[in-house]
Amino acid sequence: MRRLLLLALVGLGAQLVDGSLGMAYGVTSTTLLLAIGTNPAAASATVHLAEIGTTLVSGASHWRFGNVDWKVVAKIGIPGAVGAFAGATFLSSLSTETAAPLMSIILLALGLYILVRFTAVGLPKGNLGKPLRKRFLAPLGVVAGFVDSTGGGGWGPVGTPAILASGRLEPRKTIGSIDTSEFLVAVAASVGFIIGIGSEGVNYTWVAALLIGGIIAAPIAAWLVRHIPPRVLGSAVGGIIVLTNTRTLLRSDWIDASDGVRYACYAVIYVAWAAALGWSFQQYRKHRDEERQIIAEAEAAATAGGTSAAKAGTPTV
Questions:
Q1: Which helix (H) or strand (E) holds 125?
Q2: In this prediction, what percent of the chain has a pLDDT beyond 90?
Q3: Per-residue burial over 111-146, b = 16 or more CB atoms within 10 Å of its CB, e = otherwise
Q4: Its domain of life (predicted)?
């Protein structure tokens, strides 16, 4: 019962972060399942089955608050489902001894990317409101879907920063669109895992616990996305992922580091993480008004562009 309660709380916290940041539900949940000794393929399968429900509720909540661009959802979600199915069948064919450190490396890389991306880079400028093309979104979807299945998470960490980095879609619609399209990815990945490892490898009680926590958090996160600064939250989540997966790798058979080496690495990560959080908060406060103005101007330009295109009878993307 204690483990189920913990899983429900993790599902709640992970979805709260994912829904307000556009990433980290799968990475956070999979990291915990690996830490308690779950088979890598079964861990990813468990998380993706839970995500079918959480992403459905999250997408509906984001749509209600006006955070979804449905053209982006279609252009990235369908290729993402293809990549997710391929990644699930690939991971299912690997042995546990090979897959566990491999998955931790992928998660660590994603965590580092999140930490650096949101600490060092602010809101992109100059391109907000410009259309996102299919030739950009389709390959991104395939890659993000494949990484999501093999890493137990990655749809948001790959997709959200890439779209934000393009500077063409404001943060709240980037997050809402990525969260909504993840429903297709979760369904495809789940089908792939069931084909690859069978339903016996999945603990459906754990799926239910993660699902309950995620469903509770999804509407709250969709509302919070308008208020929590993504830069600060991104630094926090990135640090958690880096710390947890560094611990997994240092204790694995691949490295098997001594206690002294492990504690020294943890100390360095804690110091760097604290500095990143402090810098992110400082930069957020410094550029808050500027970022709000950029978003407001982009929304006005996008609205004007959509109206003009509708009158002319031409598509906007």
A1: none
A2: 16
A3: bbbbbbbbbeebbbeeebbbbbeeebbbebbbbbbb
A4: Bacteria
